[in-house]
Amino acid sequence: MKEIVKHILLVDDHPLLLKALKMILAAEFPSASFYEANTGNAALELIATKPVDAVILDISLPDISGLDIISRIKRTCPRIHIIVNTMHEEIWYVRQLLNSDVDGILFKSLDSSVIADAVRKVLSGEKFYCDEAARLCGPPEPAEDNVTPRELDVLKLISEGMSNVEISRELCISVNTVDTHRRHLMEKLNAKNAADLVMTGISRGLIPINR
Predict the structure, then answer these.
(1) What CATH architecture applies to the domain 7-137?
(2) CATH topology of domain 149-203
(3) d(CA 45, CA 152)
(4) What is the tens place of the pLDDT at every residue in 12-39?
């Protein structure tokens, strides 16, 4: 098979993992060039100054949220393929990644042999979601079309732990109006309480995770 990889950026704040990733991929793609970054800012600087075809990204970085990095890459360099290699196997993280339209999702708990296969398929124009991620979430669910922009504002503030009174002050609406929005959200998202409401909002991509 003709080698398709040109330049790969590896992003992880663990030096040993960076070294291991490079060893695995260099063996599979001997003519590829590799760049390494251990922070989000370093990764974005390399993307701005070097030719990059694919990024293998850990979303837990010390300075910038991996989801924010994904958003910036999609906005400024949409041709770059993004494969997320993460230790986070929770449904809400995976759902966020799916809704972010990344090209691949890998879990760090997987056998290293999966990584090269993921890169090869993604650089060929395919999506690659590891079996565990695919089983966990299935196809990405669309956000609820009937959640209004104001209800979305209320939902995000609920996720920040604000009370109805605090939300009313923040949005300059009455407490009764906040309560109405909250009840509508509970019905639309089939939530039983505030915690369930927030978790459902995250899993459906209505509430971004920027941590």
Answers:
(1) 3-Layer(aba) Sandwich (3.40)
(2) Arc Repressor Mutant, subunit A (1.10.10)
(3) 33
(4) 998 888 888 899 899 889 989 999 999 9
User: Residue 7: is its pLDDT beyond 90?
Assistant: yes
Contact 49, 66 (CB under 8 A): no
**What is the rounded distance in angstroms from the CA atom of residue 100 to the CA atom of residue 208?**
10
Give the mean pLDDT of 44-54: 95
Per the model's pLDDT, the better-predicted residue between 172 and 112 turns out to be: 172
Answer yes or no: are the C-beta atoms of 69 and 43 closer than 8 Å.
yes
- The 3-state secondary structure of the chain, one letter per residue: CCCCCCEEEEECCCHHHHHHHHHHHHHHCCCCEEEEECCHHHHHHHHHHCCCCEEEECCCCCCCCHHHHHHHHHHHCCCCEEEEEECCCCHHHHHHHHHCCCCEEEECCCCCHHHHHHHHHHHCCCCEECHHHHHHHCCCCCCCCCCCHHHHHHHHHHHCCCCHHHHHHHHCCCHHHHHHHHHHHHHHCCCCCHHHHHHHHHHCCCCCCCC
Q: Where are the domains of the chain?
A: 7-137, 149-203
